[in-house]
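Lesson 9: reading folded outputs for more than one chain in a single document. The general rule is that every protein is listed as its sequence immediately followed by its structure tokens, and records are never interleaved. Here is the first one.
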Amino acid sequence: MKSIPRDNRSGLEWRLSPSRLVAWGALGVLLAFACFYNLENYPIIWWDEAIFSETAANLSQTGRYAFTIQSPDQLSDLDYRISVGPAVILPVALAYRLQGVNVINGRLVAVAYLLLAMLALYRVARSLCGSATALLSVVLALLGTDVLYWGRSVMGDVPALALFLCSLGCLFHGLDSDSGLSFLGGGLCLGLAFTAKEFYAAAFLPALMGLAYQERADRSRLGKRLGLFCLGLSMPLLAYLALKIAVLGSFSRAIHHFWQQKMLLRHEFFTPLTLGRFYSESFAYLLGHPLFWLGILGGYCLGQRDGLSPRFFLWLANFLLWTLIYLTAVYWYRFALPALFLACPAAAYLLRRAFARMVSVLPHRLGQSFVAVALGGFLLLWYPPAGVEVLGAMVSCRSSPPERLKAFLHDHVAVDCLIETPEYELAFLDDEHRFHLMPEFYFVESDAERLVLLNPRPTKYDFEKTGADILILGSFGKSIFRQVYPPGQVARNWKKIAQVDFYEVYVRRGREHYLARKRNPQLSRTLGPGSPKPESSPLSDVQDYPFYF
């Protein structure tokens, strides 16, 4: 195996290098700002995050691993909509138990996983390309992808990515040092990644291929390494299975639950097998992303430098796998994060190599500085500013529409009313009112032309039969779930009484007398910026109604 060139300075000299200390300091400040600034308001809590946050809240408050059907106490144990596993739910529930249930406490756990993802990426990139290149790869991932958006939310994608990268780093170390603990740790981290997001089970195949390639001439060593890896992998999986058995009551029910959930969610991945089609949007996003092509070119250069070394083989197998998975999956951008993160070390290596080649022909420092500025300017113009856009939105977001709606409900809606909504975040944020949440529907197809939903129940869901007094429709209810809440039916049977940001609040016609007459004249000035006068407030369209909620 060819050795990978290392920095020829000692560790002490590297640590004392002023330029690298400045680089580390700048990156640390950027990461701290990007992870923690305005964490409560941005991103705005939404449908998926609300499912996982509400599940963790139920676990911390009632001891049940369940999602809410109707608050406060009608719950569904291990609901199929809980598509993240205990590696996410359990630490968030612990944070809620220790610090209280609110948005920011759950997101602090998410941010911890985001920081772990960046550290694990640095570790993987350093194994492949050296320390300076690893630092650049973290910058490319931070600024060139939308990992900040997903990583600041209680979601499963970034935690699973972080644990997967930890597994890859352990395997790299094991291939170098022949450390049994590294292979055990690699399996353990991959198992934890599975318990965060189950499709990361696919990463077992490249790991198996990498180990087989490394030890193709020694089957006994292969068996030992593979045994340690599988031992580590099995521990989180068995714990996850034990949790399902404890919640559902039997092994057969746990297996049935796993299979049924995969059948309901299978259209998110390998759509050619389930839908008979590819999503052109997936190809357009990944193949149009400069980081992806920089990774391909950088991977070619790494292959030329190192040959097909075990580490390069393992990196390449994973990069190809996650590229294939995204190209055959639904086009949601967060599913492209594994492929883009794996592209970062190779892309950083290519950029550093290009910079070194250009400055090598320029003897003067002024020329080298010019090349650095020119290359940086080129990247600013050509490289996608996804991370910069997230940072800009994070700074400009000053309040939370769901929190403003919560304030509206507190001042205008009687607590004994039943509220029907598909906006799950409201049940998580508001413990004062009773919410009946729309039951599960699953995406079959989703693109600009059409949206197909799968109803797992034998009968059509009729939201009119829930007995709700209030209906609230937000961004999901007015778009994706229009077929569940048809606008014509809503207009016939419900009266719009207010709009708070993108939320529309309706009262069932004929039910006004069930509600308390409550009005807070100051509320119109607290619902958001830009409405200092009562006549221009979001409540100006309810002045003709006899009741104010």
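And here is the second record, again sequence then tokens.
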Amino acid sequence: MSLNALYNSLKRRLESGEWLAGQRMPSIRKLASTSEASYHDAVSAYARLVSEGLLSASPGRGYFVTSGASQAVSPREPECMSADPLFRLLQAGPQYTKLGGGWLPPAWRDTELLAKAIRRTARLEQSSLAEYGDISGYMPMRKQLCVHMKRLTRIDIRPSQVLSTLGATQGLDLVARLLIKPGDHVFVDEPGNGNLIRLIQLAGGHVVGVRRTQDGPDIAEMESYLAKHTVKAFFCNSTFHNPTGSNISPHNAFKVLRLAVEHEFFVVEDDVYGDFSPTVRQTFAELDNLDRVIYIGSFSKCLSASLRVGYIACSQELIEPLTRLKLLTCVAVPAFCERFVNTILADGTYARHMQNVQQRLISQQVQTQRSLLARGWKFDIAPQGGMFIWAYHPDITDLQPFMTKLEQHKVLLMPGSAFSVTRDYQRFARINCTHFSEAVESHFSV
């Protein structure tokens, strides 16, 4: 019996209650003999179970079942977590199609290309495996980010204006902590990033949703609110907006920035989906030159969720307090991951990977839209690219029963209410076209 087979067999028997808490396990020699495994594999299997808290080791006496073994039979999530659609998406196993997710499926990533870059980085940067790293971010990577942003967004910045983060979420969290005081009014896209809404509320901010239109935020809505209230910041997506897939127009972006200057609020541009665009994109940062704009990017969406490398680009005046705040909340940085990102930016691996993803996205977005429209689904805002489609069906007034039906077929959606400040959009769903397939589309006939 192999090590994995032995380990899985023992774990299954422990969780079923075959051995009771406090009971002594068979000796290593006996286990190896009865299971036809090697002595080394028997030792390793027991060691794994000890590390998981299912067994305890007593020198000279053997291995004993812990009370945790019986409790591991059917772990239950807290009710509030199991009811959260994002939690369910993240926790669901590989047998589920995560149609409501905000990431690419594993098959879309050129793992061999990236693996070669990882091996190359490991050979050249062995010391980074044990280093804490520069709190501001690996300097060569920050220099590469300046080149990257210049090419894709026409933003001209210095490395001293760039701060690395553990993905975009940490970037948003740091900016929210720095800018927002309890009671401050903060604009966000409506619909928009549900996790961001909770981050701002955690900082004590009063979140105000601004309706998203085809070409960006509703300017009239912003003007009406600003006539009566002071707003500290506006957090928004500019490219391939989450969840509608729309882009901000130059005209709309200019009006938002005019309001930001007139009413003295910051624009926090969350551009994590921008690299999915095959063309140079319109950004607030380009128009403003990082005066009132704080730009946030990330590689996690394009490469891997486990590669937590993002960045903030902003004025020198803001980068210093953000760096101090990062030091308070995160002493160590992922030095190796930052060197890996530097490698793939410098040698063209990232550009080649993204060219393939971009072309595939264009085709998949068109196919998914056609399939949904043919089945009677509607789009309030037409997606202009990227992963997302914000859709509803005229015959579905409440999405929950439809989601329950899909889940029975191992398909998970994200409901519109998860993207709303007011928990509105009950009829809508965010659909990730990269997870849409022939097997899924048959379930969308209503």
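What the second record shows: The two ends are 50 Å apart (CA to CA).
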